[in-house]
Amino acid sequence: MTSLAGRAEVVKLARELHTAPDELGFLLESDPVAIRRVRQSMHHALDSPYRPMFERLAKVSALIPNTLAIAIATRFFGPMLCGMIATSLSPERAVALIGHVPTTFLADTAPYVDPTAAAPIVQAFDTDVLVPVMQEMVRRKDYVTLARFLVAATNEQLLEVVPHIHSGEDLLQVGFNAELDTVADRFDVVLAELPEHRIREILQAAHDQDRFAEAFTFLQFVSDKTLTRVSEVTAGLGPELLTHMVESVHRENAWAEMIPVAALMSPESRQLLFELPVWDDEKLAAVARAAEHSARQGDLLKIIEETAARLD
């Protein structure tokens, strides 16, 4: 059965192959970790034979004035080659060059930069450099590239740039497309500091755009304290949103991700959730199966006991 993580990995692999995700639909039931390893191995295999040339070009760029280096790069090299060379620059050299590069060209180049290798460079940039490029990629809805750079930015940089992502849908999509195995801890960094009205915007976008699956993809990585905040904000948005959430979770078989959310709701909020008319035998059986397969029986038992006690 298709997992949320598997769907996210197929989207990212399609981006690497310059094709539509639908063309890789046959991979949706594959192990997400295996898909990720194929994508990463393919990237490194294509990059490594040319890395010595990129290193030489980076060294040559240091011998000419910054404005001339940028003129040559933007006119003759293009975004792909510049992105490949970027990680061979020193952070100091990158900072010196960045002010001469148009924002649109930086956004064109970003998809071809290895964010892990570029981490020292990204961390050397001030927020006033990062924000315009980020906003241009948001405008293009280039969520895959934005999400890849979560691994490169510091916690401080993340907290500074997130307020400049104004749409709840944009935040939702960046989180869904993140490299879950490498940036799991970053979700809690952001959501723990995010004002409640921004969390409501994300959840409302999940409702309006039918993207609850995207939200549950990364909520599984936050701390209980943060998840409790999210759970209560979710319940506070009312029966219509909760009903849509249950239907979406059932359609995507995301019960294993939803059970912890329900377990951390207050008794009042949980009662509101389980009094919805949307529940039927099929959904309850699916919840039980998901709890067994994901070792969430303890959470499910807690929900049942506390809900039963409240009803009594």
Could you explain how this protein is built, in words?
- The chain is mainly α and 312 residues long.
- Helices cover 71% and strands 0% of the residues.
- It is built from 20 helices and no strands.
- Helix 13 crosses helix 14.
- The longest helix has 21 residues.
- The radius of gyration is 22 Å and the shape is elongated.
- It starts with a helix and ends with a helix.
- The relative contact order is 0.07.
- The mean pLDDT is 87.
Binned, the helix content reads over 70%
The helix/strand series, from N terminus to C terminus, equals HHHHHHHHHHHHHHHHHHHH
Between the first and last Cα atoms, what is the distance in angstroms?
38 Å
Structural class determined from secondary elements: mainly alpha
CA gyration radius, whole angstroms: 22 Å
The number of helical runs is: 20
Largest sheet report: none
Low confidence ranges: none
In round numbers, the mean pLDDT is 87
- Give the CA-based shape: elongated
Strand content: under 5%
Strand tally, please?
Answer: 0
Topology:
Blueprint: H1 4-17, H2 32-47, H3 51-61, H4 66-86, H5 91-98, H6 103-109, H7 119-122, H8 127-139, H9 143-148, H10 155-161, H11 168-176, H12 180-193, H13 196-208, H14 212-219, H15 224-236, H16 239-252, H17 255-263, H18 267-274, H19 281-293, H20 297-311
Helix pairs in contact: 1-2, 3-4, 4-6, 6-8, 11-13, 11-14, 13-14, 13-15, 15-18, 17-20, 18-20, 19-20
